[in-house]
Amino acid sequence: MSKLVMKHAYFGLIMILVVISSIPSQNVSGHGLGGETHPPVTLDGRDVTLSINISPSTFDLNDLERYITINLNESKSQGVVEHVTLMFELKKDGERIFRRMFHDDLGNLTIKVINDGSDEIKIKGDLSPALESWMRTATEPVTMTGSVFNSGGLYEYKIEILTADSDFNFLDKRLELIGAISLAEHNTYTVVDSEQASHIVNIISYFDKIENFEFNSNKISFSMPFDWNQDLEQISVVHQEVRIPEGFSEFLHTKYDVKINNIVIKDDAVTIDDYSSDGRTVHVVMNQEDLKQIKEQAKQKSDSDMYFELGLSNDVVLPLVATTPDIRYQAYLSWKPEIIRAGEDITFFLETKELFTDKSTKNIEYEVDMSSNGTSIYHERIFGSVNSETLDKFQFKFLPEHIGTVKLDISDIGGNSLSDVNFLLVVKPQEITKFPITLESKSNTLDGQYLVDLTWFPNTLGLGESEFVMTFYEKDSKLPVRGATYDFVLLKDGSEIYRKSGIANAGGTFENFVFVEKETGDLTIRIENIAGTDEYVEIPINVTPEFPLGISIMFMIIISILMISTKYVKNFQYNV
Questions:
Q1: How far is Cα 231 from Cα 473, in angstroms, rounded to an integer?
Q2: Higher pLDDT, 489 or 186
Q3: 3 state SS of 550
Q4: How far apart (Å, rounded) are the C-alpha atoms in residues 102 and 505?
Q5: Among 546, 496, 499, 556, which residue's Cα sits nearest to residue 520?
Q6: Residue 575 above 80 pLDDT?
Q7: How much is the pLDDT for 32?
Q8: How far from 256 is each of 211, 283, 307, CA to CA, in Å?
Q9: pTM, two decimal places
Q10: Other CB atoms within 10 A of residue 481 CB
Q11: Euclidean distance between CA atoms 296 and 55, whole angstroms
């Protein structure tokens, strides 16, 4: 099986699992994703189960053929009920599309539907001798032509069972089953990001048609018809996909906040999938219980529509999780610092778990590749472990040309060619610090009452001497705090490496510190015991292991001056 086919098979399996896990346990009919299986009903003293499906289940204007299958089985034995005659009615938006009678000797009816755009529904096949109902020929299924499936969305149906077990065994009372199946609607929209670049966003609705799409202020919003006054017992799941292209880096994030009718839905109803398509797919899956919980509040905005809003979360949530298409492994990816910026050392952490084994710790090998704009920028074969509490890790420093989306592939896990996962990362430019930085004080007991303006020189901290300039203000009056005492503290890995007490006589002061090699990396500045209180401010900083460019230039100038001075002195001595 090709990797592409396996990819789609994996995606289909995951979606089936999502839908199945979302269906409540009650025996009720519901709106199915391209199909529906009814709970058992009694037919001539035995329980039978009817299922109906449409394939393919996603609407495509270029795909003119579909198949409707209707099966009637005994619930316990799963054996087919033979010689079934049924009346089949299909509606869309309350309008009847067709109502016809069909028959199948084996209880497995297949109707081939060809959308030819004509207004008249025509059927080809043989006619059953008992009732003039359409049935397959010796070589072909029943074929229906006409305007049957013209759009995605919800299709309501009613099936009435007329005969069973024999062509002439007419039921005293027709067995009637009513439900709705969803033909997924695929919508394409063009959005423009903050850099005025255009991107194509796809939305696939597995419930009903999408309307009112907007992209504004890093938020995607759209609506879908939904009757909040209906009996939600008939709903199994509402599922939407938002597909974000790989190049739309400013809308790629580790977590998305989703609202339905202005209600923030729970995190586990939103999942990120970087594997099943080119780019990122955000799945929003609401099961029956989820819908019941928000029903009354949702109706306050609209009782006839479901409004979706997908926005970037303020939180960075790691690790990202992906499952290999062979359902063999689950991979977890995280990194530090959590915001990836060009020019900074990023440490990646990988954890791999087996899904269906004894889950004992084992040695494992796999390939890690990263690419930017289709070009490989990193490759390494990792010799790590699986099912271990110790994380595999590697480091990489992204260059300015890598800013944007970077694709990270983990492949050949454990030597299995189909065990691979993909993740999308976003590399941001180096942050330009704007001085002064205003920090609001904190207290262990009360709200903070001070502001501290902090500036440091050079702006990019590195080896050598740096100066930290501080000004203390009262938060409410914004007036300088004269004679403010303080402790200036530097922390590395949570441990104190420097402390000095001082006083800001006129509200402003400074402290100098010389950084050496062992003090490079991530540190924290903490200014505490402000004005004799327990209030403090703190901010993370990064000290590079090389001299900043400004200091290097300064050293070059100093060396040049020394060289010129030495030459002058020698010349002076010679002349004397």
A1: 60
A2: 489
A3: helix
A4: 95
A5: 546
A6: no
A7: 52
A8: 21, 10, 16
A9: 0.64
A10: 22
A11: 35
Q: Assign 195 a pLDDT band (cuts: 50, 70, 90).
A: confident
Strands 392-397 and 375-386, bridge-based pairing: unpaired
DSSP state of 401: G
> How far is it, in rounded angstroms, from Cα 340 to Cα 218?
19
How is residue 228 annotated by DSSP? T
- What whole-number distance in Å separates Cα of residue 144 and Cα of residue 114? 6
- The answer to whether the CB of 81 falls within 8 A of the CB of 48 is yes
- Average pLDDT of the residues in 195-223: 92
Q: Residue 346's CB: how many other CB atoms inside 10 A?
A: 19
pLDDT of residue 33: 60
Q: Using an 8 Å Cβ cutoff, are 88 and 123 in contact?
A: no
| Contact status, residue 171 vs residue 131, Cβ threshold 8 Å | no
Both tokens of 326, joined, read 């062979």
In this structure, the dihedral spanned by the alpha carbons of residues 61, 66, 70 and 76, taken in order and rounded to 10 degrees, is -90
CA distance 233 to 239: 16
Which pLDDT band, with edges at 50, 70 and 90, does 546 fall under?
A: low
Distance CA 34, CA 487 (A): 66
For the record, the structure tokens of 458 come out as 């050079």
Q: Pick from 146, 129, 127, 145: which is nearest to 137 by CA?
A: 127
**4: CB partners within 8 A, 6+ apart:** none
Look at the block and give the residue holding tokens 């009817």. 50
The pair of three-digit structure tokens given for residue 470, joined into one six-digit string: 């501080």
Collapse the DSSP code of 28 into the 3-class scheme (helix H, G, I; strand E, B; otherwise coil) and give the result. Answer: coil
